[in-house]
Write a structure and sequence with these properties.
Helix content is 43%, strand content 16%. The chain is α/β, with parallel strands linked by helices and 338 residues long. The strands form 2 sheets. It has a 7-stranded mixed β-sheet with strand order 1-7-6-5-4-2-3, with helices on both faces. A 4-stranded antiparallel β-sheet has the order 8-9-11-10, covered by helices on one side.
């Protein structure tokens, strides 16, 4: 069964599964002190930044929360959009576990702008010691609406962060899709970032994410935070082996390019029908659209997709294991309804 609901629904890519099988031999040192983990870290460093410090964790929420925890003190705060994953989809974990406040502002096509950052910063900072001290900006690449930050947009955000003495965090659960869409190296999209939550699960892994400190000064003591935060896997080789496969021969980028292309194909086909409206540019493997209400139940029964809670907006996410034939079949079903 194939769905267009989420890349979390997808199967594990065969090369990732083979990496797990290959890692499953003999005894090796525990807690990341094994050769596979060290090779995976080295490969990520070669791809993103030689100075990067890399730790593997289990989930995206853990990666985001630990990245924030490592960067802030409890009286400091995070600036993000009102649609950010850390705001809407992590059960308050950053606030509960890190003891910090999230300062939100409206998004523009999913994005945070330099002007919005400055406005939120000034509104909070003007109260001095009676308010939190903004210290970290958090953005998602791709955004929660499937749009991408272009390199010049990232540079502009970095500039305002430098102006206001703010750190910059990126939730990169679909970073590969952004790089594939923009046709730029991953390194280009993270060069302005201090700490990165590097995706894995949505990119074809069975499980696993990474926290990557591009600003190595923030990594001090993180080995203790990882353990305290319940994310130090004893059999770490099974997480890191997957990343080793994902970063070998650009597998992650190739899978992202495939899912992006299928999302573009589906979006282009659907918007040709009367009554279909794309809400944001289709720039990655995820896009949002309004469909004729009479179509929804039939189309969901054919190939399941989300209707966002409390709305009439459909979310489509294409995964590495979806094929063009699945898209064509879905469009044909829509044609029958139209």
């Amino acid at each position: 069964m194939i769905s267009f609901a989420s890349d979390n629904y997808a199967s594990v890519h065969p090369k990732i599964m083979q990496a797990l099988v290959d890692a499953n031999h003999g005894h090796v040192p525990a807690y990341g002190n094994d050769e596979i983990t060290q090779k995976a870290i080295k490969l990520i460093q070669q791809t993103l930044s030689e100075k990067a410090k890399v730790w593997f964790v289990g989930t995206g929420t853990a990666a985001n929360t630990l990245a924030i925890k490592a960067s802030l003190r409890s009286y400091q705060s995070v600036i993000c959009t009102d649609s950010a994953h850390i705001q809407c989809n992590e059960t308050g974990a950053p606030e509960q576990w890190c003891g910090v406040k999230l300062l939100t502002c409206p998004h523009e096509q999913g994005k945070l702008t330099p002007e919005a950052i400055r406005k939120v910063y000034n509104a909070e900072a003007c109260w001095g010691q009676h308010a939190t001290k903004p210290r970290l900006v958090s953005i998602s690449q791709t955004t929660e609406f499937g749009t991408v930050y272009y390199p010049e947009e990232l540079s502009a955000i970095r500039a305002v962060c430098d102006e206001l003495d703010l750190l910059l965090h990126m939730d990169g659960c679909r970073l590969y899709n952004a790089a594939a869409e923009l046709n730029v190296p991953l390194e280009e999209l993270v060069k302005d970032i201090d700490v990165l939550s590097l995706g894995g699960t949505k990119a074809g892994l069975m499980f696993g994410e990474a926290v990557v400190f591009l600003n190595p000064e923030l990594a001090q003591g993180f080995e203790h935070l990882q353990k305290q935060g319940l994310q130090l896997f004893s059999k770490m080789r099974y997480v890191s082996a997957q990343f080793l496969a994902l970063f070998t021969d650009n597998l992650g980028l190739d899978l992202a390019a495939h899912s992006n292309q299928l999302a573009t194909s589906l979006a282009d086909s659907l918007q040709r029908f009367d009554g279909v409206e794309l809400l944001y540019p289709a720039e990655s493997n995820m896009f949002f659209a309004r469909l004729p209400q009479l179509w929804v139940e039939t189309l969901q029964a054919h190939t399941y997709f989300y209707i966002m809670p409390g709305s009439d907006i459909a979310r489509f996410v294409l995964s590495h294991d979806v094929q063009q034939s699945h898209v064509d079949d879905f469009v044909e079903k829509a044609k029958q309804l139209g």
